[in-house]
Amino acid sequence: MPKMKTRRSAAKRFRVTPTGKVKYKKQGLRHILTKKSRKRKRNLRKTAILSPEEAKRAKQLIPYG
Question: What are residue 64's phi and psi, to 5 degrees?
Fold first, then answer.
């Protein structure tokens, strides 16, 4: 059976943790930063975990993740 192809766009955005959860970097920290509060920007720097429903969809795009 041939190898499954990975969606490269998804592979760049998501990482699967050893326990099987899907991590991603929050959006909104690239530009127009002057109007965002210091607290908001600090919280955007942290990585987040996808919800179980979204993680299921993301794992289909990254079969070897």
Answer: -105, 15
Distance, C-alpha 39 to centroid of its chain? 21
Q: What 3-state DSSP class applies to 5?
A: coil
Q: How many domains does the chain have?
A: 1
- Residue linked to tokens 């990482």: 15
Q: Taking all residues of the chain, what is their mean pLDDT, rounded to a whole number?
A: 96
Q: Would 7 be classed as within a structural domain?
A: no
Copy the structure tokens of residue 10: 């998804």
Match 């190898």 to its residue by tokens.
Answer: 3
Q: Is the pTM of this model over 0.70?
A: yes
Tokens (6 digits) for 62:
């990254």
pLDDT at 65 over 90: no
